[in-house]
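seq as requested:
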Amino acid sequence: MITIYHIIIVGLLSCLVMDLWQRLLKLTYGINPSDWKIIGRWFIYLVLKQKIYNPNIENESAYNNELMIGWIFHYFIGVVYSFGFYILMEYYNVFEATLIDGLIFGLVTLVIPWFFMLPVLGKGFLAMKTPRPLFISSLSVWSHLAIGIAIGLLYKSFGY
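struct tokens:
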């Protein structure tokens, strides 16, 4: 039972680390953090209209509580990442609870934004349909490195 709590705590705290990283980027360089309202809207459209691909999501009608739903979805995905790392660490011996393995895991998770989320939002693979694909893709790198490193170090702090 304690393992489930650790998985959840690691997932939530690793998302918090990413969010703090994005706030630091906003304060120091004026780079806006992820827009969880749009992710919430996308998720609502997915559930209500079974619409995965929505290239005009930013122009779709807004729903009540889409920002809150986006934040909940974001933290849920953090717990999913934590669970994935745990499974790969404890059952398959792919990773250990270290900074380096967390960093590698963070890089592996880039598959999700680069090849799923950005494309379903109409931004293309690796954000190629945006005005600044390299910039957008690199923001994903840094955010996912923050999550991955946090996951590795948090599991280490729990004695895994």
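The chain has six helices and no strands.
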